[in-house]
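Running this now, will post back.
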Amino acid sequence: MKAIPWRVQLGFVVTSYAATIALATFLIVVRYLQYVRHPEDVMASSGMYAGGDMLLALFIGLMLLLPTCLLALVLRNSESLYTGYAKAVMGVSLTAPVCLGLLVLPAVNQSPMLLGEFCIFRLINAPFAFAGLVFSRLLARFRQSKRLTTYALLIEGLTFASMVGLLFIGVWTHRRG
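Update: finished.
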């Protein structure tokens, strides 16, 4: 059995990312049109719409996880490419503590800015990012890529633990006050 050429595999990954982004864009536009066309329903059931928005964000995060895992599978045999991938993953993991820090600021978390929306999207999808990092770490075969993916896992895990800790602190101080 002949192996699939590397260019075909990489083309499939790029196509998967393009299809995922196209579908996510379509879903977001449909959701936006629903808000525009039925504002009275949105006002009457704002909590349900917010829950739907959160589920949409989780679905998009899960969809983005699949091509990322395919990319890791394709790149795992090349040390230079997987190290570059590990550096990119490290950069993505650094966005989690930055987003958490930004959401603490009232100017970001209480305004309708796109930055706040991005930060919330990033932190809602932290479990998927963590799962992708675990998968990337398991596939890492080279010393530097193992080290980078381990650091990325630590950053993501500590940020997630901090988010949970802040949640419990908020609940605890709300009960006491």
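The first helix runs from residue 6 to 37. More later if anyone needs it.
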